[in-house]
Backbone:
């Protein structure tokens, strides 16, 4: 019995083994759901408040003025929802008349109202007429490109809102563009400066972008990096170098414990490129002070412990921090003295026969470059150039011209081969250390050139041609200074007479807005601020020391000459004779006014 | 067995088919039973088969269990590693996704979709060709229609994420599941891991679908290796067991064969002794035992031979002086009337004791002749009926003296058998004499029976009978029912022994039956032709009037035959019907 039982057990065991053997010990085809751990819970909505959103349709109530203003700011904000926001203002029956564009094609037509909106109440609806100046098209990538539209006025109607289902006003017969007023641009956008390397990769060139304030602060880094990878503004293109083609930000830049992480895909990367990119990022993200980690395809390549330190160690462009004021007085260059400002000796030695009309001095390392316009006895003017250690002697002069404007030195040029630009007889010329003036062609600009100004970085110039303002990039292709296609800067002033850079992306321009005036404008013309709406006379000469982030404490300051009298800003006042520090050699009688003031830095 | 197909009458086809099925079933079961029987026989007979089978079964169990454990362990280790890896990736991926998605505070933001796609591609490692089939998916079950779920490669991963897993993840758990499905061109197992991703506006779900092809292949490899090793091991063990058993069993078989030959009388058979191991010891011991046995047997044979010779010699040597004594005693006996009565009585006693002595010597000589194997059967066709008459006549005087009547139940026809008349006569005389002697005055019945091949004679008395067990003892030499009773009356104590030898010489049987108070019956059965083998007897050993101690077979009322069964046991069978009826 026992034997039989044991045999049965054995048979059973073998059977079970044979059955379970092949199936029992493999990876199962299906398994139950197993919970490993509790996942992180959702962080309760700490979404940033959208105070920077433009007001909606009903915010204005039934006030047509406020409604029109709100309508002109409705498109502000993140571009992908601009149509949605604008359509809120439009009569639901007519919303289809606003044709939507997608993605990068979305552009906001930025206009400057030349006048208050003309609102005429009618029987059925209120008619609105806007007289505008086209400023540009704000693209989804934050650049403001020259205007494509040519309309000078827009007309639409307001539904007085006699509807039951909703209150407030509606726009009827809307313009088929997304309108944005310059004031809305000022109010709901922040102008951001990003930097690109120049062609020689020796210094950074600022570029301007607009970022909606509604974008959360955390996404700013991502957007800036995307701008950098997308390349510079069109007009700046010839003067700067882009990141390698195919450079892309991988996902968003993220922050943890104050440390930012930027993950890039960068074909053809090398140490130099990465270093340059790091510097570019450091300058383009001025609000970040802490560490930044630069990754290339998920590999950590650069860690910057402190962006602030990095900026101090790697200047965007060389600049001396103490501008000295000089002027032309009695045919010589004389320093100006203001309380609390440094002043120095004149680094140029001129002979008694040399009647200085205007001058430009620039430091290039420990050398001083000097370009002076000399009035000859024959009533013609010549350009005199000198270079070397302080003081320099003006030895070489150019051919005579009827009238030569104030020359400018391009600070980007190599110190031993300096270049400058000068306007003479309505033409734009370049000159070098040999004082030979060669004409420089300027594309896209018409009319006689009357003024030229170079930015601190030396790769952008502002030119007044035919009474209009242009900016252009400087390139050094072929070892010669050339200018890229000019971009017109729409300003409200007309009959422009003088220009200079008052900041990295701002210009000071003098012209006529009914009366002679000095305005400050952004490099694209959108943000225009009057500095002095009545200077009394046409400004013939204008010099500014630009606000810049390189010099930590820099106060923009401005001097100009109108009607033979020099003025200064902060506060606007006349530069008096007493403020001219006469050097001993020119000890003649004190007559006349200081003219053609300029900064030496 | 039941309904045979030859049954006449209408036989519908279903029943025929059923019959056919039954036939088939019977055939099959029969064949199976036959096979099972053969297997069982082999199992019982072959130690080698048993040992090898047991070894195979036990080692298969052990090796199988071990192999299962190892394979299972390998699989679980592989799976655990994969799980740990994926969980780590999932956690990192979740952190990354959470960071990337933290910029968005509503699900409607347009760049969210882009970020989701970028995140998924980033987590998958960018290049879809180099992800080893890993699919990363970011879904938004709570924002269906607002947020499009994205996966790193454009495959239908949805069916692989079961509803249970989705529920578990939606519930805020990190969970996993193994699923089988087809993402690429081949069907594979996938480890699906899911985790919630917290964002400012709610929860998204991150899934990793990692193919387990490599692990599966490794596990299969390991399994195949383990199984192959196990099978080889089991086979090796079986072979080993067979070899070892064969090593042990073959000498045992030789020993068994040798023992068989020894018992058959071939006393000089010996085993071959090889080496010095246990089996050699067995063979040596066996040989020694055989030698000892042979010596003992030879010695005993010699002793027995000497004894028989001695008996024979003594008998012969006694006969010569006895003849002289006899002659003298006869003389004295003849002259006894002239002596005084006391002496005459002594002479009579002397004469009587000399008769007995002579008889004893004759019997002793006869016995020694049997023992020496010199007894020869002198068979001739003899009619047994006159022989019975002759014996009864000869003993009539004795019967008369004892007051016993002898009844005969003989066939009327002659009963011819090839027998030695002298010996049969002696046997009958002995039996009848004993019956008369122990008949206690009651009648003695002699019955003669015959069938085709055998003749039988029974002698029935109604004396004191035999106690149980005495049926065999009565044939012993000098046996006495009551040892205290002096041997006064007749008989030498060798008569029945000689009779048994006589019957055996004929190839017949001499058996006894007796019960206390019921008398006894002796039966002599002889083959009708000399040299034939006996199988049954025409007469019953137990008389019909005897009361059996157990009543069972008697109930049938039929006559019973008790004869020698197999292995020397007594068998009680229904008597053959075609028995020759003996008229009284």
Residues:
């Amino acid at each position: 019995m026992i034997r039989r039982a044991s045999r049965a057990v054995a048979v059973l065991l073998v059977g079970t083994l044979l059955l379970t053997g092949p199936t029992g010990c493999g990876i199962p085809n299906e398994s139950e759901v197993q919970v490993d751990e509790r996942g992180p819970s959702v962080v309760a909505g700490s979404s940033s408040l959208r105070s920077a959103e433009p007001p909606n349709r009903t915010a204005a109530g039934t006030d047509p003025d406020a409604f029109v203003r709100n309508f002109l700011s409705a498109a502000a904000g993140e571009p992908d929802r601009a149509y949605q926001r604008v359509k809120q203002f439009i009569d639901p029956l007519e919303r289809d008349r606003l044709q939507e564009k997608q993605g990068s094609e979305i552009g906001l037509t930025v206009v400057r109202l030349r006048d208050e909106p003309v609102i005429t109440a009618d029987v059925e609806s209120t008619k609105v007429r806007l007289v505008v100046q086209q400023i540009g098209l704000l693209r989804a990538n934050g650049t403001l490109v020259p205007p494509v539209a040519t309309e000078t006025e827009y007309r639409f109607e307001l539904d007085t809102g006699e509807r039951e289902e909703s209150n407030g006003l509606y726009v009827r017969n809307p313009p088929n563009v997304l309108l944005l007023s310059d004031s809305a641009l000022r109010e709901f956008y922040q102008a951001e400066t990003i930097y690109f390397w120049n062609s020689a990769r020796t210094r950074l060139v600022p570029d301007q972008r607009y970022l909606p304030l509604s974008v959360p602060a955390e996404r700013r880094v991502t957007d800036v990096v995307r701008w950098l990878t997308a390349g510079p503004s069109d007009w700046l293109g010839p003067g700067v170098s882009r990141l390698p083609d195919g450079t892309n930000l991988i996902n968003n830049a993220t922050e943890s414990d104050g440390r930012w992480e930027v993950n890039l895909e960068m074909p053809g990367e090398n140490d130099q490129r990465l270093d340059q990119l790091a510097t570019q990022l450091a300058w383009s993200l001025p609000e970040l002070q802490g560490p930044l980690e630069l990754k290339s395809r998920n590999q950590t390549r650069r860690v910057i412990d402190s962006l602030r330190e990095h900026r101090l160690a790697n200047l965007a462009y060389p600049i001396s921090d103490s501008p000295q004021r000089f002027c032309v007085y009695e045919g010589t260059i004389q320093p100006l003295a203001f309380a609390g400002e440094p002043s120095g000796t004149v680094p140029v030695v001129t002979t008694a026969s040399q009647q200085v009309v205007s001058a430009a001095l620039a430091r290039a390392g420990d050398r001083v470059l000097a370009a002076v316009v000399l009035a000859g006895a024959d009533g013609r003017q010549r350009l005199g150039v000198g270079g070397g250690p302080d003081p320099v002697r003006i030895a070489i002069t150019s051919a005579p011209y009827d009238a030569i404007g104030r020359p400018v030195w391009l600070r980007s040029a190599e110190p031993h081969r300096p270049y400058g630009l000068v306007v003479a007889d309505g033409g734009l010329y370049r000159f070098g250390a040999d004082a030979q003036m060669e004409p420089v062609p300027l594309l896209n600009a018409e009319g006689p050139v009357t003024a030229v100004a170079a930015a601190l970085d030396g790769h952008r110039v502002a030119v007044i041609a035919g009474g209009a303002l242009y900016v252009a990039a400087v390139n050094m292709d072929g070892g010669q200074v050339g200018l890229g296609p000019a971009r017109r800067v729409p300003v409200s002033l007309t009959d422009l007479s003088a220009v200079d850079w008052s900041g990295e992306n701002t210009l000071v321009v003098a012209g006529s807005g009914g009366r002679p005036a000095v305005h400050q404008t952004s490099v694209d013309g959108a943000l225009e601020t009057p500095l002095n709406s009545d200077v009394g006379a046409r400004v013939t000469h204008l010099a500014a020391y630009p606000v810049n982030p390189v010099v930590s404490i820099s106060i923009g300051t401005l001097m100009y000459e109108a009607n033979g009298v020099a003025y200064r800003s902060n506060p606007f006042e006349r530069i008096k004779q007493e403020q001219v520090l006469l050097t001993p050699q020119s000890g003649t009688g004190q007559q006349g006014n200081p003219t053609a003031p300029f900064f030496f830095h | 067995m039941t309904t045979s197909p030859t049954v006449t009458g209408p036989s519908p086809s279903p029943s025929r088919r059923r019959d056919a099925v039954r036939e088939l079933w019977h055939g099959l079961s029969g064949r199976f039973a036959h096979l099972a029987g053969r297997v069982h026989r082999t199992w019982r007979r072959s130690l080698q088969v048993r040992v090898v089978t047991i070894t195979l079964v036990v080692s298969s169990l052990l090796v199988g269990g071990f192999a299962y454990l190892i394979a299972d362990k390998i699989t679980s280790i592989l799976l655990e590693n994969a799980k740990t890896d994926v969980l780590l990736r999932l956690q990192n991926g979740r952190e990354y996704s959470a960071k990337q998605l933290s910029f968005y505070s509503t699900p409607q933001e347009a760049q969210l979709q882009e970020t989701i796609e970028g995140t998924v591609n980033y987590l998958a490692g960018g290049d879809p060709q180099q992800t080893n089939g890993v699919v990363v998916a970011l879904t938004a079950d709570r924002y269906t229609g607002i947020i499009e779920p994205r996966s790193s490669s454009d495959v239908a991963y949805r069916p692989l994420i079961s509803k249970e897993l989705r529920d578990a993840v939606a519930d805020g758990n990190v969970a996993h599941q193994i699923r089988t499905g087809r993402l690429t061109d081949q069907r594979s197992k996938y480890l699906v891991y899911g985790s919630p991703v917290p964002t400012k506006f709610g929860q998204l779900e991150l899934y990793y679908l990692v193919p387990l092809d490599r692990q599966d292949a490794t596990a299969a490899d390991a399994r195949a290796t383990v199984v192959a090793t196990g099978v080889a091991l089991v086979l090796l063990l079986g072979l080993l067991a067979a070899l070892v058993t064969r090593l042990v069993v073959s000498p045992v078989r030789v020993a068994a064969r040798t023992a068989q030959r020894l018992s058959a009388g071939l006393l000089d058979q010996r085993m071959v002794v090889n080496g010095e191991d246990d089996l050699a010891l067995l063979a040596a011991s066996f040989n020694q035992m055989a030698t000892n046995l042979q010596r003992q047997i030879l010695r005993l044979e010699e002793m027995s031979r000497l004894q028989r010779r001695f008996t024979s010699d003594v008998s012969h040597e006694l006969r010569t002086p006895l003849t002289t004594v006899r002659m003298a005693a006869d003389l004295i006996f003849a002259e006894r009337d002239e002596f005084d009565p006391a002496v005459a009585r002594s002479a009579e006693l002397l004469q009587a004791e000399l008769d007995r002595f002579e008889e004893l010597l004759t019997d002793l000589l006869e016995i020694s002749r049997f023992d020496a194997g010199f007894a020869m059967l002198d068979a001739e066709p003899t009619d047994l009926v006159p022989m019975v008459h002759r014996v009864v006549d000869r003993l009539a005087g004795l019967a008369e003296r004892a007051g016993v009547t002898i009844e005969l139940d003989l066939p009327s026809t002659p009963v011819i058998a090839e027998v030695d008349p002298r010996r049969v006569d002696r046997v009958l005389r002995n039996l009848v004499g004993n019956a008369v002697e122990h008949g206690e005055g009651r009648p003695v019945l002699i019955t003669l029976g015959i069938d085709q091949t055998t003749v039988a004679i029974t002698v029935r008395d109604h004396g004191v009978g035999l106690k149980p067990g005495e049926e065999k003892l009565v044939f012993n030499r000098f046996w006495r029912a009551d040892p205290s009773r002096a041997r006064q009356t007749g008989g030498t104590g060798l008569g029945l022994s000689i009779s048994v030898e006589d019957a055996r010489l004929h190839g017949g049987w001499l058996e006894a039956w007796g019960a206390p108070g019921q008398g006894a019956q002796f039966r002599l059965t002889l083959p009708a032709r000399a040299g034939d083998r006996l199988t049954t007897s025409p007469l019953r050993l137990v008389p019909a009037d005897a009361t059996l101690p157990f009543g069972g077979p008697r109930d049938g009322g039929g006559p019973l035959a008790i004869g020698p069964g197999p292995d020397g046991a007594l068998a009680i069978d229904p008597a053959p019907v075609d028995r020759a009826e003996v008229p009284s």
Remarks:
- Chain A has a mean pLDDT of 83.
- The interface with chain B takes residues 10, 13-14, 17, 20-21, 24-43, 45-48, 78, 80-81, 216, 218-219, 222, 250-252, 254, 256, 263, 297-298 of chain A (CB under 8 Å).
- The radius of gyration of chain A is 32 Å.
- Helices of chain A lie at 2-24, 64-73, 82-89, 182-188, 218-230, 271-284, 307-313.
